[in-house]
Structure formats: structure tokens, C-alpha cells
């Protein structure tokens, strides 16, 4: 079952206007910073926030005029919203009951789903007695119990601690693969999006800024937000042959292009020197250190010069260079790791 | 602790506690058992408990939906409506009784019709007592339930809607269970108010032993003829109040 939608929600000082499609069996991640309108888009799809314009079609049938209870769209909410007065089993049986199943039949459906998410033992537990990971699985089972045409997940892993998250992420991926309808999930975590989704839709300020597969987006970011998410330095410039001009800086890149382009390279491709290096490496600038922070096993150095720049150096290199904020330094970027692509 | 606060605080405490202590001190403890067994006392107590309970049931049946209307809909003039609902809260109960008489009395707007069509006359009957008590007590329930509804997380209702629940299903399977503690607290408060109701009852339902003479009415009457009996009846009401308060300890007196 496929989704084809155009969501427009207008509020004072904010306008959401995004087109969102998902094929049957496809998982689409809606990725964006806080306040970008991700959750609003999800609520618009579910019928919880009225649309100011646009449409929502499931398998070609318009549903955006239907109230939420008649759309048959399953939602896993950010903090799950399991009914606190009902057992896990009755939470999952709630949807089937609303669809007209008798209590016993609804409970059979629910028991089977709880078994599928590995919670058969906790069927009679109240939500207050479930761990975060268990509650997340009950919420997923509850949403799937209505045999939804479309499954929506709002930050499905955000409420979990790091360890549980890892486990639940892998498990969620398995359940989503088994679901034959379309899935839209909202997240601000690029890792969740890359692991769980087939396709990413990045929104900023209520508009789509980039869509593509996770690997496309990781390689060719088109906004500063996406570049930061995937950990690349990103610039917009003019290309002529192997050269790209970004402001006052000139890059040599591996690709031959002309016209407006993006240039991207990882912080690890930047090398720092106290004195101007011998020979004449291309892509060399004088820059000032803005800040230094730990980043994984390395040290990330933020620089400004002709272009703002993030560089990753090893701790020992950082010690040898004796880096301090405000210090002037030489930064060089390897041309082989500098990628240009049309803007 | 600054004395301008401490002294009035202690005076206030004494003011609230001393009369009750006086009641206990003057109680005819020796004759208490046989006085409690007097048919007059038992009759008044039974009538009070029965009417207050029915009045609470009436308030629940009408008041919970009314509270929902005030808390969950965007009806125009909702603020005026809420003000109207709370009027019986501040209205002297005697005035409430007079108003009830004017509407439901045998010559009243609705009362005349009731009498002509069904031969039903409400004033000076046990049903009249229930009506008077419900009229005075319902605002307590409505306000408590409305507060609980406003405090409840409405996202659970949205979650229920995405699972296919109609508005009515959402109300009775999600909303109501979630505000149950608030409804219970409101009902107990409402019941206690109905139990103590005096002014509207005596005005609308009169003072007939066994039919409309509830405990507070019996206390007032006994005070003129048999002060000891009044004390005994008052003690019974005090005991009921204390039991109710103990039951609500966590919710109203606060755990802090």
C-alpha cells in the first residue's frame, strides 16, 4: 500500500509544505532539525493536525478528509502513549476491539503480535511496569494490530538509553522489513534514519531540502544541516574544470565540472601545519583556531579563514602542534578526498 | 518564625479546632449508645445517606458529561457557561431552594406541567430532597472533574483515535478511566456537600420526619427541644465527615 501526499499546514510564523511519497514496503525517514515540521507532517498524515491544504492518498484513495479514527494509519508515538490503565495485551487489543472484534478474538490477535515482538511473557503487565524498550515494542505491536495501511513512527528510539537503542534499532529494522505497507518515520538522528530507512527526506523550516538514499545523502549533502549530520565540510562554489572557487578560496577537486557546485570533504582530509609546508600542496590556507573539542578518538579543530573549516587530527598530532584557540595555522586539504557535485 | 504570622496562624487553628473539641467535650457519652439507637436518629441518618447517595449518582450522570463539555469542546460562550455552573456554589442555599420552588413547585414553570401531565409533585417529598441536594452539590463535582479533564494528557485520546476509536469509545475507554481518581474525589466531595445540605432542602422539601427530615434538619430542630440529641446527631455528622476526609487524605490534604 503506497502513500502519496502533499502536506500544507499553516500556522502563525510557520508554514509546512512538503510532498511525501512512500511505496508499499518502503521505509521513508523524515529527517530534520528540531522545529523543522517533522512531527507536524506526521500528525497531518495521521489526521491529528488539520491540513491547511494539500492531500493524503493511500493507494490512490483520498483520506485527508477522514477523521483520524477512520484512516487506518498506525502511529507509534514518541513516548509511546500506552494507556496506563490497560495491560500490554489490552493496549494491543484496543485497536482490533475498535474495529469490531469481540474481546476474546481481539486478545488473540494481540497475544500473537506481542509474541512476535517477543513480549508474550509481559502480556499482563501494566505499562508502568515495562522498560522503555518493552514499551516501545508494545507500542509497535499496538500500531500494527489495526493492520494499518500506513505506519508512522515519531522518533521511535529517542526515549531509549544508548544500549537499549542499539538493540531496539536492529529489532525495529526487522519488524519494518516484515511490514508490507508504507512506513514513514520521523527522526533527528541520522544513524536511526540510515539504518532504518530506504530513503531519506530531509526537511528544514517546513520545506524539503534534499531526498535520496542514505548513501547518496551521506556522500552528497546539499545543506549545512545535512553536512553536519553526515560529518562533512560543505561549501557552495563555482567550478571550472578541476577548480572550484568558494569565496576567496580555491579548491582542486577530483571531478571536472562547470557552473555552480557543492564541494564536500571529511574533516579527516584536513591536515594542519604550524609552518607553511614545503612544496606547494594545493588547497592550502592560513586559518585561525576557533575551538578544539574531543570527537570520538580524535580531536576536532574548528577553524576560520577564507572558509570555515572542521579538521580532525589525532591526539598526538594535536599535542605536537600545541594547538590553542586564537592561534594561526596552515590547513591543507587533499584533493583526492575533495568531491565536487552540481548544485 | 515571624510572630506576625505565627500568632494569627495559631489563633486560626484554635478557631477551627475548638468548636469541634467543644462538641466532643459536651457529648453525653453515657447515653450515647441508646440515643444513637433512637428511631428518630436512625431514620434521619438513613434518609440522609440515601438521599445524598442518590443525589451524587444524579450529579455523576449529569455532571461528568457537563464537565467534559466545558473541558473538551470549544463551544462559544463556554466561559459564561462555566460561570453559570458555579453559581450554586456561591449562591446562598436558601435562595437555591426558593428558585427550585419557583420552577418545580406545583405552580412553577416546569412543576405545573409535571403535575398536570403526570400528577408528579416534587416539593416536600424525598425526591425533592434529592433535587435540592443535587442542585447545591453538583458544582463541586463538575469543577473537580473538569479540572481532572484539563490536567489529563489529551495525546492519549489522539492515540486512541489513531487506533480507530470513535469519540464515544475514546471517552469511556480512555478518558474516563484516566480521570477516574478526579471523578472519585469530586463524587466524594459532592456527597459530603449533599449530606450537609440544609438551606435548599428545608426550603424546597420541608421538614417531615422520615420523608424529608435529613440529619442537618434534625440537628437544627433538636437544638430547640433536646440539646443533647442535637449534640449526638452532630457527632454522627462529624464522624462521617472525618471518615470522608480520611478517605481523601492523599488527594485533598496533599501529601506534601
Provide structural commentary.
The complex is a heterodimer of chains A (343) and B (256). Chain A is α+β, with helices and mostly antiparallel strands and 343 residues long. Chain A folds into 2 domains: 3-228, Rossmann fold, CATH 3.40.50; 263-342, OB fold (Dihydrolipoamide Acetyltransferase, E2P) (Beta Barrel). Chain A has helices spanning 38-46, 88-98, 103-116, 132-144, 162-178, 190-196, 214-219, 224-230, 315-321, and strands at residues 3-11, 14-22, 27-31, 53-58, 61-62, 73-76, 150-154, 182-187, 199-204, 207-212, 233-246, 249-265, 270-273, 284-295, 298-304, 309-313, 328-333, 339-342. In chain A, strands 6-7-8-3-9-10 form a 6-stranded mixed sheet, with helices on both faces. A 5-stranded antiparallel sheet of chain A has the order 13-17-14-15-16. In chain A, strand 4 (53-58) and strand 5 form a beta hairpin. In chain A, helix 4 (132-144) runs parallel beside helix 5. The two termini of chain A are 34 Å apart. The model of chain A has no long low-confidence stretch (mean pLDDT 91). Chain B is mainly α and 256 residues long. Chain B has one domain (43-252): MetI-like (MetI-like fold, Orthogonal Bundle), CATH 1.10.3720.10. Helices cover 79% and strands 0% of the residues of chain B. Chain B has 14 helices and no strands. In chain B, helix 1 (3-26) packs across helix 13. The mean pLDDT of chain B is 90. The chains are: A alpha+beta (343), B mainly alpha (256).
Question: Which tags fit this structure?
Answer:
heterodimer, A: about 350 residues, alpha+beta, Rossmann fold, OB fold (Dihydrolipoamide Acetyltransferase, E2P), 2 domains, six-stranded mixed β-sheet, five-stranded antiparallel β-sheet, 9 helices, about 35% strand, B: about 260 residues, mainly alpha, MetI-like fold, about 0% strand
